[in-house]
Amino acid sequence: MTSFYVENFGCRATQADGAAIERQFEERGLTRATVPARSEIVILNTCTVTASADQDARAAIRRIRRQNPDCQIVVTGCYAQRAPEEVASLPGVAHVIGNSHKHRLAEIVVAPRRRDEATSVAARPGFVPVSNLAPGGGSEIFVSDIFAHTELLAAPVFDGPGTNNDRTRPNLKVQDGCDNRCSFCVIPYVRGQSRSLLLSRILSEMNALVNAGYREVVISGINLGRWGRDLETPLRFERLIREILDRTNLEKLRISSVEPMDWSDELIGLMADSPRIAKHAHVPMQSGSDRILRAMHRKYRPWHYREKLQKIRAAMPGAAIGADVMVGFPGESEVYFEETRLLIEQLPFTYLHVFTYSPRPGTPAAVMRDQVPVQLARERNQILRDLAAKKKLAFMQKFVGDRVEAITLNVCDSKSTEALTDNYLKLRLQGHHQPNRWVKARVEQVAEGTLIAVAA
Q: Among 24, 320, 329, 377, which is disulfide-ready with 106 (CB 3.0 to 4.6 Å)?
């Protein structure tokens, strides 16, 4: 029986796409391999948000070709969509399948056909012609206009490694694509316009996960707060949250990243009032400088952002509040960087994801003047990471001596179990506990970014 292996790079949305690809192959009778070196088909589901993401994908192709020269390497995802010819020119790549055709990936790869039949297969409606670009026979390229793409892959992806018995906290992607045009971001050009999973499909997937015994589910998307706007009968994100609470028995819903503009008073109120919604708000900021936000084409100003976070903190004093922040954007002077640093210092963040700007071909920011030297941007990155670490530590220390609720994840060693609190803090619980269980724990100390606790 033919075996396959999917290796994912990048964000939660990419991981969710990978889970859907696995489902495609399993429905066709293929078996999942545990490592790429033992697989007949290896699918690399790529990211392209930074130059280093592209480098990681190329390195993976070389590694897999070296470890398993007889396997069929298939490259899909955002890098494949953005630069298919570049990917196809890499030795060992058999297929390049962009996001535009990811929903038919298994069909393309598994469908039996001779090499001389490939052109007719690729000529079916929606496919582009085969390009013979790689040495030694060439790679098949299946990429078309992503903005004409209406499909949305959906399958839960699980946090826990290993067997189904120790997987926890499945993630369900309910939205894909983005209608924003941030000047630094390539994602709309590789994922297309915003599109939403139907409410009925979401509820069906949620109920299936609940029936399978999962207690916490994370919902995610490329621009999650825009869910429902594109449906035939438009709906708002708050409606989705209410429907999940009303029509499923899910014990805990965790909401991933939502843009500042979509944190409405209603959404904040829903989260604050329901014990079934994790107290965790991720609100991308990118910059605290008005000048830089305008250059980024972001749709809010620093004072708008401050107001949103203050409302979230007032409604949920113990909530986790995180953000994405970018340093080194073109034109970011010392003054503008200091505006960002000062705003972060003043706001109630509990963690940050700090990124160094990376020019992406085809984006407006890539050709802007006043590009910031890489070394300077890295220094600024470290300044914000150090600040974030201090804020996180101060937040965690508030819980020493308190009782908290957490969901068990995996056994760390013979003496302790990893868990995650409602407000997104890592917790190491004394003793051996089965995964996917709610536990009450008393926090004794903080060590290496983790709450150390005993069962209470």
A: 24
CA–CA distance, 123 with 136 (Å, rounded to integer): 22
Q: Which helix (H) or strand (E) holds 78?
A: helix 78-82
325-348 pLDDT, tens digit each: 999 999 999 999 999 999 999 999
CB atoms within 10 A of CB 69: 9
At the fourth CATH level, which superfamily is domain 164-397? tm_1862 like domain (3.80.30.20)
**Strands, DSSP E only, in 360-449?**
403-411, 416-421, 426-430, 438-447
CA distances from 7 to 19, 405, 430 (A): 10, 33, 33
Domain boundaries, the chain: 3-145, 164-397, 403-455
Strands 140-142, 171-176: pairing kind: unpaired
What are the pLDDT digits (tens) for 121-139? 343 333 333 333 333 346 7
Q: Specify the DSSP class assigned to residue 40.
A: S
pTM: 0.87
Tell whether domain 3-145 is in CATH 3.40.50.12160: yes
